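Ticket reopened. Same input as before:
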Amino acid sequence: MVSLGLVFDQLITGLTIGARLFLIAVGLSLIFGVLDVLNFAHGVLYMIGAYAALWAIGAVSIPFIGLLGIGFWPGLVVAILAAGLVGVLIEAGFIRRVYDREPLDQLLLTFAFVLMLTDVVKTTFGSGSNVVDPPGLLAGSLTLTSSLSLPNYRAFVILMSIVVLAAIFVVLQTTNVGRLVRATSSDRDMAALLGVNVPRLYTVVFFVGAALAGLGGALAVPTQSITPALGNQVIINAFVIAVIGGLGSFAGAFVGAYLVGISIAVGSLIVAGAGQLIPFIAMIVVLLLKPEGLFGGAEA
Amino acid sequence: MSPVLETEDLRRQFGRLVAVDDVTVDIHAGEITSIIGPNGAGKTTFYNLLTGRLDPTSGTVRLRGRDGDLIDVTDRSANDIANLGLSRGFQINNLFEGLTVLDNVRIARITRENRTTDITAITSEDSELTDGAWDVIELVGLEDVAETECANLSHGDKRKVEIALALGTDPSVVLLDEPTAGMNATETRQMVQLIGRLNDETDTTFVVTEHDMEVVVGISDRILVLDNGSLIADGTPDEVLSDEQVREAYLGLEGDEELEAGLGTDGGDDGGEMA
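Engineering reply: fixed in the latest deploy. New output:
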């Protein structure tokens, strides 16, 4: 019999995993929803965010440049900018040229970036794993009962995912820019005829999607060990979430991410070491019963 | 008459097919010009070349900008051309069905009013944007349905929203695709009146493709006839309808009556290409 405390801990772990997965899945959905591009390199952008944060914290150094060591909070900004700028480079430099081609060409192009950027990070930072502590401000735990406690940092990560979801909804639903994004997402030719600079809007959307992945990666740094293989681990879960939640749906990305996160953590209690089993089973069930995903078909 | 939009030897080939064949034409400011021609004559491709959606194989498109200069827009992007004052009436399926008429028109105003850089601007509190949208709605006569979702509009009103979206960018020239397609007699009459009134009141230049010859004759200051991608006639309705070459283009039809009947019942439009 597993104790209540253990189940609770795993639940919190699951929610933390879910929050990080949401930040990558939501960017994937945003880019797919607006640009119609399935960005395989999104996991790598997450990994780049994680390494940028490690570098900013001072845990790893870049050859010939050295350590940055400015701490965790400025590190979040560095991670967001690093992932966002790499994303802009990928979009404006490369993906832009294949918008009118087969989806397979886009997928292969983004996959090439997975391989290249993973190697770039490996060469720069080495392939060892890196672990750091949560920032001092969020050290410690909130004690609920004698056996149940909630680490402050994990609560913060979960909160961040909710803030991001709310911010995306508010921007898309109420602002002028949000309306243009939705208009372009629904018909880019029409948007161009209304005077929208579609290529620029695409670059901005790609930046935001990539920056969110970078934020997710940076937030992961104090909760797990970081290796260059991180990108490949998370992109698979991000695609599982996309299938479960419905690609292009932000609510689907949110619910899907938490379902996958919790089932990874709680699943490993049921069958030790088989945490990935339940998400894949859930994905197969969704594919068979509701192929468009739980929230598919609804407007993003 | 000063040209507001002109093409010079405009040509577009798709492989061996010449969809638009060295068309040289100028559209006069303030007029309503109709473009007619059988299916596959190149009307849609011609529009796509004008709006920058397609690049021409050769030739030039010039548009009179808001400052009065004639600008070569041949290689400009679609949004640049839209911002210079060329607008196109949208197909019904391009409206945002889930949004109200007001919201649809607001979207058309956002770029025009330069409301894209401030990411915190809340649409419903942006009074300049909303006022601009209301002006367009009143101009087109959609006040009664301004707060209605587009999905719940009648066919005739949806086509009016298309025109409102096109006018939302404050264009000097509006291109319309079959504005009366699928309309009953009453709606058709109202649409013809609306285009005439907008042309009078706003000095906007209209270019219209249309199959219904009654509409064409009733609305046009000038008619252009395309056949196999070539411009085969250009003149007032009277001149064009009595043109021998125009009759031949419609497969040996002889006499005005048959010509009008032949054009008028040519129901299948090239909407498929436009979608």
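The two ends of chain A are 43 Å apart (CA to CA). Residues 92 and 203 of chain A are 6 Å apart (CA to CA). Please confirm and we'll close it.
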